[in-house]
Amino acid sequence: MDKNPGKGFDSAAVAFHRDGELALAACVVTIGAFDGVHRGHQELLRQTIAAARRRGVPAVVYTFDPPPKVYFGQAEALIPLREKLQRIATFAPDHVVVADFNQIYARRGAAQFLTELQLLQPREVIVGEDFRFGSCKGGTAQLLRQHFNTRILPPVRCGNGEIVSSSRIRALRRSGLAAAASALENWRDIVTAPPVNRSSLIQLEVISP
Q: Count H helices, E strands: the chain?
């Protein structure tokens, strides 16, 4: 992975870092693969940035390249890293940390991840309820809560109650339902909206096929 993952596009408002490089006095951080930066991911970003602004501390997004499921051959990436970072940067967090998910990183235990997270001194950690970390997915959102002030967000659902997920988007694409997959990503509306309106667009209900 490039030492400067934000290189190549206008990201002046966002600082990009490799894992273990960033140390802060305080922050609010969200963690996840963010593959596709779909509606569920957008809600994590929105909540994280809003909480950071309320607290007057930096907003941090911690993500992985490649996404763990992609590394283990369980799925194909929805979008390349450069596009993922562009999408994340659209929401204007202060920092984005990109962990190089390789053989060494995959062997790290949950305790090692918690130690790295401590460098950020998070006032609040915001994750989805299915978040896992550490080798063999040994760390859970509940374990995070034992060490940090952690908010666990419920999944974002479509009009018919189905959970918005990267797996569902992949399934829709494989079935030739590109428009339905795009609706779950909700990206076209986000990028064409003025920044002041992006938070409200994230919360719009999308009626699934």
A: 10, 8
Residue 180 to residue 73: CA distance in whole angstroms = 25
Helix (H) or strand (E) holding 127: strand 122-128
> What residues contact residue 79 under an 8 Å CB cut-off, 6+ apart?
35, 36, 37, 87
Summarize pLDDT for 134-172 with one digit per residue, the tens.
Answer: 998 889 999 999 999 999 999 888 777 777 877 777 777
Query: Residue 62 belongs to what H/E stretch?
Result: strand 59-65
In angstroms, the CA 132 to CA 146 distance is: 14
Q: Give the chain's radius of gyration (CA, Å).
A: 16
| Distances in whole angstroms, Cα of residue 25 to Cα of each of 19, 30, 89, 95, 190 | 17, 16, 22, 13, 31
Q: Which residues contact 97 (CB under 8 A, 6 or more apart)?
A: 16, 17, 18, 19, 21, 22, 60, 61, 62, 63
Distance between CA atoms of residues 10 and 17, nearest Å: 16
The DSSP H or E segment spanning 143 is: helix 141-147
pTM for the full predicted model: 0.82
Give the bridge partners for 95, in sequence order: 15, 60
